[in-house]
Amino acid sequence: MASSKGRAGFQADLKSATEKDHVNITRLDKGDADDEFTLVFSHPSLPSSSEIEIRVQPQDIRGYPRDNTFLIYTNHDIPSPVARVLEESIHETMGMRIDNMLSNLSQRLRTSLESNEPGAEDEASMAEVDVSDSEQEDIGSSDEDIPFDLDEDFPDDGMLEPMLPTTHQHYSQSTSPLSPSLLERLRRDLLSVHEAGFSAGRVSGFGDSGPAHIISVSIRVNRLCLSRETREAWYLAPSDYIVLLIRYNKNYNTFDDLMERPAASSEISFRLKKCSKRKTTQQQANAAFTSNSAGKASSEASEGKELSNTCISTSIDDLMNTKFIALLKLRKLHGHSWESANKFFNSQMSGFSTESEGPSTSEESQHAGGQENLKKALINKKQGYKTKLPSFLTVDHLSSDGEVSLPLVALQFALLHLIRCADYCAVCHEKVKGNFEALRPYVCSKPLCLHQYMNLGLGPSIDDEIVNQPYVVDLLISFCYASLFTRVQPPYRGMREFPSGLGLRVPKIRRGDFNSPSCASSYEKPWEHRFVPISGGILVDPVDITFNWDSSIATITQGNYHADLVEGKWVVVSTVVPIDSMNPELPQNEVVLHHARIELRTDKLLQLNVVSRHLMPSYNNKSIADVSRARLCVAPGTLIPGHIVSYDEDLDQLRNDYEKAFSMMLILASLPSVAEMRSYLMRNPLQQLAQTKWNRMTPASVYLLRWIIASNRSYIVQVSDEQVEARSREKICGVDGWMQFRFAQGSPEKEMLFREALEPINKPQKTLLAWHGSSLENWHSIIRQGLDFSFRLNGRAYGNGIYFAREFDYSASYTGCSQPIAMMWPRSSLGIQAAVSLNELVNTPEKFVSSNPYFVVQECHWTQCRYLFVRYSPAQYEQDGTQFINTNTPTTARARRDAIPEFIQDPKWVATGLRGANLFVPKYAIPSARDGPDYTAGSSKTEARELEIDSSGEDEEDINFLFPNSGISHKIPTFETDFRPGTLDLSTLPRLAPPSYATGTSEKALAQEIKKLEQIQSSTPLHRLGWYMDFERITNMFQWIVELHSFEPTLPLAQDMKAAGLTSIVLEIRFLSGFPMTPPFVRVVRPRFLPFMEGGGGHVTAGGAMCMELLTNSGWSPAYSMESVLLQVRMAICSVDPKPARLPKNGSLQGQYGIKEAVDAYLRAASSHGWIVPPELKSL
Hints:
The protein is of the alpha+beta class. It contains 36 helices and 31 strands. A hairpin with an 8-residue loop joins strand 5 and strand 6. About 45% of the residues are buried.
C-alpha cells in the first residue's frame, strides 16, 4: 500500500538521519506525539545556553516525501529571525526527505543568526540544498498534474511564491517617515475605506520616525446581516467590531507597488480580530502581531478581553499572510475570480488536483436526498442573496475603475471569507462542495487539511466548550459512541464517515467474535503477526506480562527484549479478572483494559502510569466504566497474568470500518467524564487539555475528543430555567423530563433560502412546527450533515422525503426509546437514551409529498432544525454524582408564561408535546417569528445592552490625520445622503413645557444621557450615526425631537422617502415620571406610514407608536442607555421582516400622527402581546 511505503520510508530515513552528523544539530530523539521527533540546535549567537530543542512533526506521513511538509516549532524563547525561519519551514520543506530538511534548516538558522541584515535568512533557500536526481523526480510535477492551462507568456515574477508567515516576523520598531506624496496616497486609501461604509484609522506610525506602521479597518457585527443563531455560533455580539489590522514592516505599500513586485517580497502582515471598539489601541495591535504559537490561551490573555480571535481568525490570518497578495495579482493581472485564483495557487504550490464541482449524475442526485435540489436553488438564488446584503458587502472595489485602495480590498476579502467561512475549507481555503448544512467552519475532505486543522490549532477550543457547555460536549461524545457501537456489529449502521488524515494512533486490539470477519484478514501478511484471542476481542502482537494492579508494574515474561517498549510509549495492558467462587456476584472472567504510559524501563520491568481503566466493550446490557467491583477480585499485591499491546496502529490503515469503529470505541471508553475534565480545567485555568500531560487522558483520547468537537458543524446550546434570562425565556413547555438544546443547522445561504420560501405564503402563520425522531446512532451524522433522506433506515410508505410528525410521541417511537446500556458512552453524565428534534417547516403542506398522517418534505431548504430534545437516564447521572440541571418545567416557569409572548401555531396543523400535552413555544424560540433586530424588533434585553456605541471619541484623531487642514473634519461620507441637519421647522411640532413631576434624579439621569449623545454626535459622521438631535434647541429635557435619516438606499422605506422628497423620519420621545425605572414613550410624528393591515411594517403601529417590547415594562431595564434605544428603534424601522416599512403612495402621508392615536395604538399592541405598560402612560 502507498501509505505503508510512505511511513516505512519516513522511519528508514529517520533512522539513517540519527546515524549522520549535521552541522549545529545534535541529539535526534523521539517526540511525545506519534511520528514527531526532536533535535537540539546549537549556536553561539543563541541566548542563554546557546542551544534550543526543536520539535519536528511531519504533516502527511502517508505521502512522504513528495506530499509531505514539516511543522517545525519550539517551546523556547527565541529571537524573531529564528522564529521566522521555523515558521517558514512548513513551506520550505515541502517534498523534502529528512536528511535534506535537516541540512536546509541548519543552514537557514545559521544564516539568520550570523547575518546583521534583517531578512538575510531569505537568501538561504531550498535551492542551496543538494537534492539527488531521484528526489527531484519524486518531488517534481508533470504538466498533467496541473489542472489549469498556463499561457506561454505567464510571468515568472514570483507571483505564486507564498508570502512569508508573519506570526514572529521580524520588523523594525523604528520606521522612517513617509514622503508627502505617499502620505497623501495613504489618506486617499483610507478615505476610500470610509466611502465604502467601513471605519478606518491609524493605530501607530506614519509620522516621524517611530513605531511600526499599523492601520485598522473595521465594521460593526450588527451590519453584517447575520442571524442571531449564526452570531452565537461564531461567538459574535452585535456590538462587536470585526477589525482587520494591517502592519507595514518598512514603508507604506500601495496597491500599485504590490503589482510590480513578487508576492513573497511584500512587507505586509495581517491580523483579523474581534474588538469591543472600532479601532484597537497600539498596545493591543502590537500584542496581536507578536503573539507566539504557544497557544490561543496565551494570545488571548496578552490581548485582553477587548481584543480576541473570532472562530475563523487563525485560518483567515494564514490565508491573508500567505496567499492574499498572490491571489490579488492573479485577479487583477489575469482575470481570475478569488475562488479560481485560490485553486490555481494551490495546484501550483502543492501539485494536487482540485476536485471537480460539476453537476452530479441523476442517480447521485436522487441519492442525495434533496441536497441536489438545495444546491440548484442556492445557485439560482446566489445573486438574490447578494442583493439582500448591504452594498458595502457586495460591491467589489477591485473591479472598479480608478485608484485601488489596498486596505479596502483586504477588508472585503477578509469579510468574504468570514461571512462565508462555513463554505470554505479552513486550511486550503477552497470551497467545500455541498456544504449547505454547515453553520460552523471546518475542512474539506482532503486528509492533509484535516491533519493540519488539528495540528495547527485551527478548530474551536475544546477547553472553552467543556467549561461553558459541558452537557453539549457530553451529548457529542455520546452520539459518537452510539454511532460507533452500531457500526461495529451487523447490520453495520451508525457512523457514515470516519476521520481520514487525523493520524490517530489506536491500540492493537481488534474486534473478535463470531459476527466479525477474521482479524487476520486486516493484514497483508498475517503470518508475520501474533493473534491472541480474549473475551470480546483479539490482541495483535501482544507481549506476555504479569501485572501488579497496586504498583502498576508490568514484568515481561515471554519473548525477546521487545525494544519497541521504550519510555514514553503508550500501551494498553489487558488482564482477566480472576474467578472468585466465594463471591459469585462479582464480575467473573471479565477483561480489564488499562491505558498507560511507560514511565521507566529497567530490563524487563516496566513502570507504568495508568491513566484509565475500563472493561472490554461488550454488547450485552451492562456498563463497562466501573472497574471497582472487578478490582475486588484481585488481592492486594497479587501478580496477575496479562498482555501488553502498543498504540501503534494508524486508524487510516485499518481496512474495515467496523475495525475503525471498535478502535475508536476503545479510546472513547478511556476518556474521563466531562465533569472531571471541567473540574480539572476550572482548577487549572492556564492549562489546556491539548497541550498539558494530564494523567487522566491519553494523547489519542485528547485528539479524538478534539475531532468530535471540531467536526460538529451545528450550533447546539443547552436551554434551562436555571440559565440567564435571555436563554431561559427560550424554554419550551410540554415535554417534561427531556433536556432541551437550541439546535441550529445550515449555512446563512440555506437560512436565506428558507426565508425566501416563506415570502409568498399569505397565511397568518407562515411556518409549521413538527417533530423528527431518529435512532440514537444516527445523530452523530445528522448534526454534521443535516436531515436528508440519503439513507433508507425505515420504510417510506408515504413517499421519498424527510418525515415529520405533529405528535411528539410518534416521533419518539422512532428513536428506539430505551437504548441498551452498552450503547451509551460509559462515562456519560447524561446516559442519553433518545433524541428528537423540533423543526420549523414552510407552511405549504399542500406542496409536500404527503401531509397526512405525516409531513413528508422533499426539499431540504423547506425545513430548519430549531430544537433538540434529549431523553436522559436518571440512574446514570445519579451514579455519576454530577449536579444535574432540572429539566422539568417548575411552577415558577409555568407562571411566567403570561409574561412571554407565545408562538401561535396554525390551528389546522398543531404540534403537540409529550403524551399529547399542549405545547407552549415562546416566540423567541422561532427565528422567523420572534421579536428582535434580526427579524422583528425589540425583544432581547441582552441585545439592547450589547448595542451600545463606544463614545470615547476615538475617531477625532483619525479625522485630524485624514484632514490635516482644519475645518473639514466631518466631510467623510460613507455614502451619498441628502439629509441636512438643522433644517427641521420645530414650530410645526408639538412642544411641551417641563412637567410637574420632574425630579432631581430623573433630571440628572437625562442630563447625563444628553451629554453622552451630544459627544457621540459630535465625534461620529452623521450619515453613519443615522440619527440627529438639535441639542441647542432643547427646551424641555423630558421631550426630545429626533430625526432618523441616511437609510440604506436599497430599503423600500428609503426609496419611498426619496420619491416623496423626504430626508428624515421625525420622532418624539417623552420621558414619563417613572424614568429611568420605566421606559420612555417613542412615537413617529411624521410622515405617516402605511398601516400593517395594508402591507406596511417596520414596527410602527397604526397610530405611529413603536411596537417594541423594549419600550414596555416587560422588556425595559434602567441599565439601558438612550443611545441603545435609538439604535433599536432605527433597526426596527429598517427591519424587512415580516414586512418592510413603507409610505403610502396615495398622498395620505400628509399631516402627522396625534399623541392620542399613538397612545391608543401602543396600548392595543401591548395588550395583544401580553406586555406590561407603564401606568403613568395614560396621563399623556
